[in-house]
Amino acid sequence: MKKPFTRLTALALSLALLLTSCSGGASATSMHLRKTEGTVGVSDGEGKELTPKGNLGLYSGYQVGTQAESYAWIDLDRVKLTKLDADSQIEINKDGKKLEINVKSGSLFFNVTEPLDDDETLDIVTSTMIIGIRGTCGWVGEDTAALLEGTVSVTAGDQEVTINAGEMAVLMEEGTLEVKPLPAASIPAFVRREVEEDEKLATSIQETTGIDLTGRLEATYPDALKGHGEEKILFAEEIDFEADGSPELLVIHRNNTGLDRCGIYRKGTESSEYLYETTQNNKNSFGTNLIDYKISLVESEGRLYVLLYRHMLNKSESGGREDVEYQYWGSVAQSDGDYSYWGIVDRVEYSWYSDGIGEAHQYGSWGHDETGLTNANYTKSNAGEFEAVKQKYTEVRVLVSN
Q: What is each CA distance from 69 to 65, 111, 293, in whole angstroms?
């Protein structure tokens, strides 16, 4: 629990799902413990312990708890599934068509395959947030709500944000609510296991968010997705950078020293073909000196590129300097070019100083010929040229940020 926020009890966090609804739906009147794994406890509204068994009816006031390496699945009218993580506890409260699942500890996965009727509600409640479910898929912990499908409007006090599939809302220690991309590495194992067993759901999530929970990428690029020591995979997706119908694999790793590593691979007959790699220091390395940072997928003239963006404050006794850098990289080949066709396509940096005098720099004019990418010499450019380079690219989506 984030203690600074819990003191602000008047600012309870509400999340309302703004999803396009379709006709039909079942009322949240029937609840059953579908199955259990490991050690699971169930008690009724008076605290009497019950024997967990398949299809056990659950009613208002009932509590379900799991121990280590134990899980519980609960059906709500068979079109709404929740899964309780290990070392977790919930209490069910029901009043007519109003159903509330109070997560007292741990985490809860939810997958509502049919939207609720207009006159019924399903809320998931923790000590710091309330999530109003209409029809979507994701999970909730004490201070995090993450979505794999759907769209969510999030409010906290006077804050309001929108979360889409592939994003997460995180309640920070100071009580602020932040929206961040959902890294594949942040998806807990109990959620992965549930999605992997539902091929249709896993495929839908991959098509919507680019997050592969089907296991196909691991089978296709085994050498590109293993053997990286303590690094975590933040993002892995096939992307057709050369626009030739033959996609490449983009992988973003993060290690514990504050370095993000982006690699591009092509599917080979026996092993993955390495094409390009670049690294970027993240906030774990720069600390408070890093004001903003992200890795995004961008588009220009029908081609996709990766943007590495960084906004730095370099402090000094004389006042310091701020730097903003945009680095665009990808391929200049038209079809299956080798590693010589991969690299930085554009890179611009703008600096300004405490005295208000700034200057823009463009690191040469990166181009290509029959041999691939060529790197021209470092040249200075003005602010107008700096903006012109930025405007060549349109952001498709943020892949990693902090």
A: 12, 21, 37
**Tens of pLDDT along 9-26?**
333 444 443 333 333 333
Task: Indicate the SS3 state at residue 26.
Answer: coil
Q: Who contacts 314 (Cβ-Cβ below 8 Å, separation ≥6)?
A: 289, 320, 321, 322, 323
Token couple for 15: 């999340």
Give the length of the chain. 402
Give the residue among 334, 304, 325, 326 at the shortest CA–CA distance from 396: 304
Cα dist from 3 to 173, 175, 177, whole Å: 7, 9, 14
| Cα 352 to chain centroid, rounded | 33
CA distances from 248 to 9, 143, 220, 242, 337 (A): 49, 36, 11, 8, 11
- 390-400 as b/e, with b when 16 or more CB fall inside 10 Å? beebeeeebbb
Half-sphere exposure of 90 (CA within 13 A, CB side): 30
Residue 201 near residue 111, CB atoms below 8 Å: yes
Q: Output DSSP code: residue 341.
A: G
Tens digit of each residue's pLDDT (9 = 90 or more) over 30-41: 789 999 999 999
CA 1 – CA 172 distance, rounded (Å): 10
CB of 117 within 8 A of CB of 1?
Answer: no
In degrees to the nearest 10, what's the CA dihedral of 18, 23, 26, 27?
60
- 192 in Cβ contact with 57 (< 8 Å): no
| Total-model pTM | 0.63
Which tokens hold the place of 68? Answer: 């280590």
Counting Cα atoms < 13 Å in the Cβ hemisphere of 363 gives 13
Q: What is the distance of C-alpha 191 from the center of its chain?
A: 13
Q: Report which secondary-structure segment, H or E, holds 204.
A: helix 199-209
Burial class (CB in 10 A: 0-12, 13-18, 19+), 60: middle
**CA 75 vs CA 17, 57, 109, 213, 296: distances in Å:** 20, 10, 12, 23, 38
